């Protein structure tokens, strides 16, 4: 295998550890010459929760960012195109490798941070994230064209209402309940979904309710609350496939920055999945953009063990290397 193909294959391998809606990992990669092509894996879309594939695109965008960080860490120049096609035979994005350059030590550290990143659903401790760190998260999101709107206290209460209404709507949908049951709980030996080992043992009592997966996990939820958490809405100017893909890149980039500062990140896709609660998020933004996700930022008790990483599909199932 040529040096460039090996580098692209390693980038695709690093992208396997990106966050995705219910850990569906709805992507596949093809290494073709000096190109790394990202495709949507429609068989791992959530038709009941995500009929328009918005969360699939956000998930794939996060994987796309992971691949870029891996190439940076290896010292490769590259260009990225984002056609955003959801058809099976056309790519969502294409990374074309350029010349080899000196590896950036900071990029290597970034890759290491992405490898320790995880979704933590425990309650946060009674200490706020500093304004300086929040400003860094805002700047990080902007690197891929999105914006991060930090919610005021009154807006957090509005978010709580939107989350509750979205959960009620999805709980009343038989298809959505069955879909959730198929992706959550148990040991997840196939390498997808959220195992019980990554879920709290009870739904935490918080102002903004976490998603009720209808399955008790094994992670202690913690005795805290979310009074000291910071909530935000990730948003952007457009509603095209490419915009949602970039939203995923922005999410991954700000998650990287948060991990560097030991800040936990918990995305809320529920209020975006339901049309009337998505409109409520749009009103919180004053009609200035399209909401992509709500997010909680907080600080965890360092003395408590973090939940384990969720499982991943083997590389052979998501990466194809053409001769």
TrEMBL record:
InterPro entries: Nitroreductase-like (IPR000415), Nitroreductase/BluB (IPR050627). This is NAD(P)H nitroreductase. GO terms for molecular function: oxidoreductase activity. Keywords: Flavoprotein, FMN, Oxidoreductase. Gene3D superfamilies: NADH Oxidase. The keyword Oxidoreductase applies.
